Amino acid sequence: MTTKVDKYELLKQQAESLLTGEFDLIANMSNLASLIFSELNDLNGTSFYRFKNDELILGPFQGKPACMHIKVGAGVCGTVAKNLTAEIVPDVHKFSGHIACDSASKSEIVVPIFKGSRFWGVLDLDSPKYNTFDEIDEKYLSQIAPLIFGVRSKKYEGAY
Ligand code: SME
Asked: Which of 37, 71, 99 to mutate for ligand 1's pocket (most ligand atoms within 8 Å of CB)?
């Protein structure tokens, strides 16, 4: 039986090979959003938000059109931007201030993305089912999201 951990280990390898050698952020966010959305079950949204001018602004995503600007402290994404820690929301209807971009969303996970030690943005996954996400999602998504900054080809290791 394929476990969630097996699935994520494979997803991590797929993400690394997909992004190896590419350092364009828009290309990498686009492909990573698409890979996550197609490989994980029970998703209706996978969105990158960048932290710019003291707010979050929508980046490449998959799913229904999403809200474009989110203030720090607003909704799940803004709470992550404020606290700089991941949020796992088993039932979005019970999260005070949740921003409903797609009314089908029932649970959500948002992980912060850091570039070095600097907060750079968030990765937001939405699910049409309750209780979809747990610490395994948090662990792997936190490792996978920063791959958008580029993965160096092993072939050229030592050349940098
Ligand atoms: N639900 C999020 C807003 C982003 S959309 O789901 C893509 C929130 O409450 O921050």
From this structure: 99
